[in-house]
Amino acid sequence: MPKDTITAADEQKIIEAIKEAEMKTSGEIRVHIESNCEGDVLDRATEVFAELHMHQTAERNGVLFYVALEDHQFAVLGDAGINTSVPDHFWEDITAEVIKNFKQKKYAEGLARGVRMAGEQLQAHFPYDRHGDINELSDDISFGD
User: Fold this and answer.
1) Which end of the chain is more exposed for a tag (fewer CB within 10 A), N or C?
2) 3 state DSSP class of 125
3) pTM for this prediction
């Protein structure tokens, strides 16, 4: 079970990174952690993206960090509004940073760093509007089986 690996303190560290990142951008970031990934990791991340209704943000600027702990699978997935705006290496750089930490079993640190990197990049394309921005998606981590 993911909750056996991700402690309450880890969860708090990741949520704080999400809140910090979202203070810089109107982008919405979610983290989903489960044990296993059946099939292709990007296909599963796309399913979770839909299940979490992440495609329903006003600017189509949701980002999902998907982790299957036992299967050692990771994907970061952005909605249509982001993919047309960010540089080509955007996802690869974040993935490399997260995986580097995962290999050292630093799951919370890796996810927190990746989330902050996403927030920094999204700030340029989807700046935070302190008067009009609302938190469209929960900052809580979602867990699968």
Assistant:
1) C
2) helix
3) 0.90
